[in-house]
Design brief:
With 63 residues, the chain is mostly helical. The chain has a domain at 20-63. The protein contains 2 helices and no strands. The longest helix is centred in the middle third of the chain and has 43 residues, at 17-59. The termini are far apart. Keywords: Membrane, Transmembrane, Transmembrane helix. This is Flp family type IVb pilin. The chain crosses the membrane at residues 21-42.
């Protein structure tokens, strides 16, 4: 028995499961972008911090 294509199309247009999944994927991508930027910024700050300590120790003859 062949399926009625209009019924399938109507069901597809009414179903909101797909858009919800897309919305969650977009939110996840945004959260991950913020986390990556924060970790990158934190890593740069730590690198600068330990670099200053290293320079100060070398200036005082401590290796």
């Amino acid at each position: 028995m062949p399926r009625d294509p209009t019924r399938s199309i109507a069901r597809f247009l009414i179903d909101d499961g797909g858009p919800t999944a897309v919305e969650y994927a977009v939110m996840l991508a945004m959260v991950l972008a913020v986390v990556i930027m924060a970790v990158s910024s934190f890593g740069t700050a730590q690198d600068n911090y330990w670099g200053r300590i290293d320079s100060a120790m070398r200036d005082h003859g401590i290796n």
